[in-house]
Amino acid sequence: EFHEFAERLRSAVREDLLAVTVGDVVGRGLSAAACMGQLRSAIGVLALGGSEPADLLDQIDRFAERVEGGEAATVAFAALDLETGQLRHACAGHPPPLLITPEGKAEFLLEGRSWPVGIGHHGRRSDATTRLRPGSTVVFYTDGLVERRRISLDERLGVLADAAQAGPVHDPELLTDHL
């Protein structure tokens, strides 16, 4: 069972930068909540320092190895420049973010993906850049939304993309409820 965490972080580095993170830690109960809190706090500090997504995940990887329950945690992190629409993103073992274009087309952001944190160093992580057009929506979610026993992950991701395209794409709260 996984314990989920999600948080929006307003960066103090630049007024026009919004950082978003979502992730899962293995376990449940007090120990999972404590681990989640430590990872969330560490990500918040690193985001305030202006780390690029891949660098931030590399640093969280080393931190998670020292935190009880941090092994095999998954993390998605993105930083959006509110002036240019440039989204820098990376996922460590986490399901890919879903981009919904202003026209309502859904596509997964598959670049910038790597292994979960806290399982040992496996090389340098990468991140990706996506330019968002006005009216775009990016959906971050946990695996609990898409994973089902006896149904392939690809099939469930397809269901999510179809549901997003059929939903109220211009109203984030209604879209969230719909998904």
Describe this structure in words.
This protein has 179 residues and is α+β, with helices and mostly antiparallel strands. Helix content is 30%, strand content 27%. It is built from four helices and nine strands, in the order E-E-H-H-E-E-E-E-E-E-E-H-H. The protein has helices at 29-48, 53-64, 153-166, 172-178; strands at 2-10, 17-26, 74-81, 86-92, 98-100, 106-108, 113-114, 128-131, 137-139. Strands 1, 2, 3, 4, 7 and 8 form a six-stranded mixed beta sheet that branches. Strands 6-5-9 form a three-stranded antiparallel beta sheet, covered by helices on one side. Helix 1 packs antiparallel against helix 2 (53-64). The two termini are 21 Å apart. The relative contact order is 0.16.
